[in-house]
Amino acid sequence: MKLLINEEPIPLLPSLAIKVGLNAALFLQQLHYRLNISKNIRDGHKWVFNTYDDWIEEFPFWSLNTIKRITYDLEQKGYLISTSKHNKMKIDNTKWYRIDYEKLPSSYKPNDIPSDPIVDAAPSQHETTANSH
């Protein structure tokens, strides 16, 4: 019996998910993979062009609104650059995407990891023992 993976997995570094959030990290990782194999070069950069329906095929576990929210948030943070100016016809609303690797956090320090207030607020074993006497 296979335990879980029956198809191509999306690899993900926890440090990226800590920096940008889980959904954004999944999106960026998949876009990075697609950019590596892309043959679409414009303005000196590799691009991936997709409609929202294409992204839904790529991420069938997300709704259209979730994909729009993820791409919007990544654009606002400067990690994702998108345009429709490379389309041949003006009525074509397909967006072209690339990652701004300069803005993307490249690493994190252990103290950048958000603390868990529930764990931090829990008394230590020593305090629990001292209070129970």
Task: Kindly describe this structure.
- With 133 residues, the chain is of the alpha+beta class.
- It has one domain (14-131): Arc Repressor Mutant, subunit A.
- Helices cover 42% and strands 14% of the residues.
- Strands 1-2-4-3 form a four-stranded antiparallel β-sheet.
- Helix 1 (14-20) packs across helix 2 (22-37).
- The radius of gyration is 20 Å and the shape is globular.
- The N and C termini lie far apart (52 Å).
Provide tags for this entry:
133 residues, alpha+beta, Arc Repressor Mutant, subunit A, 4-stranded antiparallel beta sheet, 6 helices, 42% helix, disordered C terminus
CATH class: Mainly Alpha
The assigned CATH architecture is Orthogonal Bundle
What is the CA–CA distance across the termini?
52 Å
Order of helices and strands: HHEEHHEEHH
Fraction of residues in β-strands:
5-15%
Largest sheet geometry: 4 strands, antiparallel
Main-sheet strand order equals: 1-2-4-3
Q: Label the structural class.
A: alpha+beta
Low-confidence stretches: 108-113, 115-133
Care to count the β-strands? 4
Please tell me what the overall shape is.
globular
Mean pLDDT: 78
Indicate how many domains the architecture comprises.
1
The radius of gyration is 20 Å
So how many helices?
6
User: What is the CATH topology classification name?
Assistant: Arc Repressor Mutant, subunit A
Relative helix content: 40-55%
Concise overview:
The chain has 133 residues and is an alpha+beta fold.
